[in-house]
Design brief:
Helix content: 40-55%
Strand order of the largest sheet: 4-3-5-10-6-9
Number of helices: 10
CATH topology of the largest domain: D-Maltodextrin-Binding Protein, domain 2
Shape: elongated
Oligomer: single chain
Strand content: 15-25%
CATH class of the largest domain: Alpha Beta
Number of domains: 2
Largest sheet: 6 strands, mixed
Structural class: alpha/beta
Length: about 300
Amino acid sequence: MVAKESGITRASETPQTIIGKLSLLEESLGESLFPRVGRNLELTEIGRLVLSYADEIFSLGNELEEMVHNFPQKTAGLQGGRSGHGAEIHCLLRVGPGTAIAGARADRLPGKHHQCSTGGTAIHCIDLVIADGPIPQGVNVRGFNHSLGECGITFFATPRLARKLSNGFPHCLNSAPLLLPSEMTVVQNRLLQWFDRLHIHPQIVGEFDDSALMKVFGRAGTGVFIAPAPTASEVVKQYDVVTIGQTDEVLDHFYAISVERKISHPVVAEITEAAREWLVPDVKRQRKSKRSSKKI
């Protein structure tokens, strides 16, 4: 509060107590945090760094309190499904940020009584991360990769933008405004290599870490955007867009990353099983169709 109010008296009604605590903190850290600038107190460079950690500490403390108060009362000793007395079990599932598949398929998660938290969860508490690639080498995080499957890519645009695209798919994307997942995603590199092989040069007008935000820009007509092929009907309905085309030459892969080598969390097990059933048949169907076209 001293940092945010730029002064001790404005931060507390008992300034002497605050002065004593600040002195103890500076002494324990061996660094000055608040050199005086006139009547105001301004943070040093190290002070700003300490403040960022302090904010995170308080945020984690608030999260801890909220978790304890909201923790389901029926989870102890239960494995999922229904208890011996017929009561439905509430499973607390902490899901880390992931790809388009997570939000688009939320309605398909088995059961109706799962508490899911996707934001503000400390990494050491996460049960599941849904990602488009395994844990990168060199990342000091203990986790286990469980392949869920793969699927093709569908391209979308507003009806107005779609009418402006000439030639057939995929060559209609040449010079077209295009929104892509950021370079941090695996699929972007695969897409760019595919474009290069076909001598297609779209105009990349945006790159997004958040696939939902990319769709919002796509709905506004900023450019053509992509999503996993099995989500096409949901994307069309939710964002009022049309499909431009689909390819299985660029595959989006999905992984469930968990803290368990062998998944035992009941909800994580159901999610991974449902995702495999949803993704694998799709790509098999696409490959079968591709083989049939080659025979023709």
